[in-house]
Structure formats: structure tokens, C-alpha cells
């Protein structure tokens, strides 16, 4: 990590949603190392994971840990207010689930599809919309999506429901970008983190959390000040929707 990057981003504020483990935790690590002020959300602060507690000790006031269940029935505005964040340069929503392991979409119950689509598509949109007034002008909102959410790049047909939930996220965030975020001077990135070694990605995944998070933060930092929407991977390559 270069000193230039640290100085450049000193004082900038980021909120990372879903930071207890995996890619979200990696993002927090990279942002702190680059001099950002970070608010990290976990579902249950009484069970703050060791890695995040160690970052808190290392970075002290630069890291704040707050509770947020993205699936919470609380009204989005109340949820946003409870986070107590203002003048955010970066909001990254990483929390997500793989959903039921059915071969075909119709094998899932309505409850399962409801939970999956609500958490992966609706909840990020609700939160981003509620937090738009807390974004600094020229800030960026990153939705952690997936290449699997691209309809045109779907060449295997597996994981029908998960793919559809990320395609729904992509579609919803397009509307949000066009109607609200970009007119407010805020950029929107739909991010593919790579196939990453996490609880979700599994041990055989070729990309480490550090590689993915470093790439994603580089892409997000480069997008600051550009009020546009892109679907982009952790190496900066634009993806087809
Ligand atoms: P993990 O399963 O490792 O971590 C998931 C994270 O989401 C955890 O921090 C978890 O919190 C949080 N989370 C789940 N449900 C909720 C909720 N209701 N409210 C708040 N937080 C919640 O996943 P990854 O880090 O691998 O994935 C992160 C994102 O990247 C996801 O959106 C995923 O779809 C996407 N992605 C991942 C890929 C990969 O290869 N890993 C590939 C493409 C996309 P808790 O610890 O409390 O459960």
C-alpha cells in the first residue's frame, strides 16, 4: 500500500455493510490501510469477530463498528439514521447470501425466494436510497453484485435463483442510479468481486479476499468524482449486463 494513497484518502469516510467476514471484512482492512475513516456493520456487535476487533485495536478511532441486519424490518430511514453516518464518500454493500441449493428455481419455497430476493436485491436498494442524503457529492455507492447476475454472460445456467437475485439487484440499482444517485452527483458501481475464497466462494476459489478487496477498493477510489454507473469487476474490467 503506497503512502501516496494513504495521504490522498485520509479523512475520507466509508461505510461497509456486511463486514463480519469475507469480502466485506477485506474491504474494511484495505480501506483502513489506505487512510479511510470506516464504519463497518455487523449483524450482532456482541459477537464481533476477532479480526474486526483486532482492526479496532490497530486503527482505533478510524474504525467504528455498528450493528445492522440488512434484513431488518425496520423502516429504511430509521435504519439509515441508526447508523449515524454523514458526508460519506463511499458506501459499499457487500452483505449477501447464496440462497437455497436447488437445481431449479421452482423447487424453492416462496419463503426461500422471498428471503433471497429481499436480502440480495431489495435490501441493498432500500438502504442505498435511504442513505443517499448522507452521501457526499462526488461520492460512490458500490453494490457487491456478481458476474452471475449478468444475463448476457450466463453460459452455464446453474444457480438460477442466485443469478436472478443479482440480476434483480443490477436492474434495481440501474433505476436508482438514473433517477436519483447520478442526478445527486453520486456514482454507482455494480461490482463483481471475482470468485473469492470465502465461506460463500469456497476453498477452491482462485482469488483471495486480499486480492479481491484491494482490486475493488482501487476501482471504487478511481470512480470517486465520476457520477456514472458501471458494472465492473475487481480488476477494473467492464462487464456486460
Ligand atoms: P460470506 O458468506 O463470506 O459473507 C457474507 C457476509 O454477509 C457476512 O458478513 C454476513 O454476516 C453478511 N450478511 C448475510 N446476511 C446478512 C444480513 N441479513 N444482514 C447483514 N449482513 C448479512 O460472503 P462473501 O464475502 O463471499 O460475499 C460478499 C458478497 O459478494 C455477497 O453479496 C456475494 O453474493 C458476493 N459475491 C461473492 C463471490 C465469491 O466468490 N465469494 C462471487 C461473486 C459475488 P454474518 O457473519 O452475520 O452472517
From TrEMBL:
SUPFAM superfamilies: NAD(P)-binding Rossmann-fold domains (SSF51735)
Cited NCBIfam families: PRK08177.1 (NF006035)
Protein name: C-factor
Pfam families to which the protein is assigned, alphabetical: adh_short
Organism ancestry: Bacteria, Pseudomonadati, Pseudomonadota, Gammaproteobacteria, Oceanospirillales
InterPro entries tied to this protein: NAD(P)-bd_dom_sf (IPR036291), SDR_enzymes (IPR052184), SDR_fam (IPR002347)
Origin: domain of life: Bacteria
Record GO terms (molecular function): oxidoreductase activity, acting on the CH-OH group of donors, NAD or NADP as acceptor
Amino acid at each position: 500500500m503506497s503512502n501516496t494513497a494513504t495521504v490522498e484518502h485520509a479523512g475520507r469516510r466509508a461505510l461497509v455493510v456486511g463486514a463480519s467476514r469475507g469480502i466485506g471484512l477485506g474491504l474494511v482492512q484495505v480501506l483502513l490501510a489506505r487512510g479511510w475513516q470506516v464504519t463497518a456493520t455487523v449483524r450482532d456487535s456482541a459477537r464481533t469477530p476477532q479480526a474486526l476487533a483486532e482492526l479496532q485495536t490497530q486503527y482505533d478511532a478510524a474504525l467504528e463498528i455498528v450493528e445492522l441486519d440488512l434484513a431488518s424490518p425496520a423502516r429504511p430511514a430509521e435504519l439509515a439514521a441508526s447508523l449515524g453516518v454523514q458526508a460519506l464518500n463511499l458506501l459499499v454493500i457487500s452483505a449477501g447470501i447464496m440462497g437455497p441449493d436447488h437445481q431449479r428455481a421452482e423447487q424453492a419455497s416462496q419463503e426461500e425466494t422471498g428471503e433471497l430476493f429481499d436480502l440480495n436485491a431489495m435490501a441493498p436498494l432500500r438502504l442505498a436510497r435511504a442513505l443517499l442524503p448522507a452521501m457526499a457529492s462526488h461520492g460512490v455507492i458500490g453494490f457487491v453484485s456478481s458476474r452471475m447476475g449478468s444475463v448476457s454472460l450466463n453460459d452455464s445456467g446453474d444457480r438460477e435463483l442466485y443469478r436472478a437475485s443479482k440480476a434483480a439487484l443490477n436492474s434495481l440499482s440501474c433505476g436508482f442510479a438514473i433517477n436519483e444517485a447520478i442526478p445527486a452527483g453520486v456514482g454507482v458501481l455494480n461490482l463483481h468481486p471475482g470468485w473469492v475464497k470465502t465461506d460463500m466462494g469456497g476453498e477452491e476459489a482462485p482469488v483471495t479476499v486480499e486480492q479481491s478487496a484491494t482490486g475493488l477498493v482501487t476501482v471504487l477510489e478511481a470512480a470517486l468524482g465520476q457520477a456514472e454507473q458501471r458494472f465492473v469487476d475487481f480488476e477494473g474490467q467492464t462487464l456486460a449486463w
